[in-house]
Write a structure and sequence with these properties.
Elements (H helix, E strand, L loop, with lengths): L1 H11 L5 H24 L13 H18 L8 E10 L2 E10 L3 E5 L21 H17 L5 H9 L1 H6 L12 H22 L6 H13 L8
Antiparallel strand pairs: 1-2, 2-3
Helix pairs in contact: 1-2, 1-7, 2-3, 2-7, 3-4, 3-5, 3-7, 4-8
C-alpha cells in the first residue's frame, strides 16, 4: 500500500492547508478500496458499489471498516487488558493474531478473530448466525455516534464525507477545509492502518467465515441509499 503511505507522508508537510486534508482523504479512500478488494478476492458476496469509483461508495467502505473493526476487536476490550495485534511472518505469509492480558497472571492469544460470532442475547444453536444481524445494526449506530455524532443519519453522513474533497479544492479560499492539527492527521493515519490490517486479515485467510459474510450482507443493506434508520 505504497500510495497510502505516500499520501500520508505528503500530508505531514501540508499541515493547516487544504491539500493536506485532501491527501489524507485520498489515503483513506485508497485504504478502503484495498479492504473492499480483499473481501472480494476472498469470495465474499458484496454490493457492487459502482466498482468503488464514486466517493460515496468509498466512504461507505470506510464506515464499513469502522464497524468491522468494532465487531472483531472492540469486544475484547471488555475483558482483555493491553490487547494488541501481532504480526509475524509464517513462510511467505503474514500471520495476524490478537494478544492480550487477562487479569494479572494470564495472557490470551486468539489465532483468528474472524471465527468470532456475537449474539444478541442467547443463540438457539451454535450455527445460528442470524443472531448477529441486530448486533451489527447496533454496532453501526454506535460507530456513527462515536465518529460523527449521529447514529441514524447514515445517508447524510455518507454524502457529507463524500463532499470533503471538493471542499478542499473549490470555493472561497478562506472557507476551504484543511488539515487543522496533528490529531486530525493521526485520525486518518489510524483509519488507514486499521483498514489495511483488516484487509490483510481477510485476504490471507484461506477460509470463508459465515460471520464475515453476514456483516457484508447486513452492512450492504444498512448503508444503502434508501431511507433507513439503524
Amino acid at each position: 500500500m505504497d500510495s497510502v503511505a505516500e499520501n500520508i507522508d505528503q500530508s505531514k508537510g501540508l499541515m493547516e492547508r487544504p491539500l493536506g486534508l485532501f491527501a489524507c482523504i485520498t489515503a483513506e479512500e485508497e485504504a478502503a478500496t484495498f479492504f473492499f478488494l480483499c473481501l472480494k478476492k476472498r469470495g465474499y458476496a458484496l454490493p457492487r458499489y459502482d466498482k468503488l469509483t464514486s466517493h460515496q461508495d468509498k466512504v461507505r467502505m470506510v464506515i464499513w471498516g469502522i464497524v468491522f473493526e468494532k465487531y472483531y476487536f472492540n469486544i475484547f476490550e471488555s475483558f482483555l487488558q493491553d490487547s494488541c495485534i501481532r504480526l509475524s511472518l509464517k513462510g511467505r505469509r503474514v500471520r495476524l493474531t490478537l494478544h492480550g492480558n487477562l487479569h494479572e497472571r494470564y495472557s490470551v492469544e486468539i489465532p483468528n478473530v474472524l471465527q468470532s460470532v456475537h449474539a444478541d442475547g442467547k443463540s438457539k444453536d451454535k450455527g445460528d448466525i442470524d443472531v448477529e444481524r441486530p448486533v451489527i445494526a447496533r454496532m453501526l449506530a454506535a460507530a456513527l455516534q462515536e465518529n460523527f455524532g449521529e447514529e441514524n443519519e447514515t445517508i447524510r453522513i455518507i454524502n457529507q464525507l463524500a463532499r470533503r474533497r471538493n471542499k478542499c479544492l473549490y470555493g472561497d479560499p478562506r472557507k476551504k477545509m484543511l488539515l487543522k492539527n496533528e490529531d486530525l492527521l493521526i485520525h486518518y493515519e489510524n483509519n488507514c492502518a486499521a483498514l489495511i490490517i483488516m484487509g490483510y486479515l481477510v485476504f490471507q485467510d484461506d477460509e470463508k467465515w459465515p460471520s464475515v459474510q453476514v456483516i457484508c450482507e447486513e452492512l450492504g443493506k444498512l448503508l444503502a441509499f434508501e431511507k433507513r434508520t439503524v
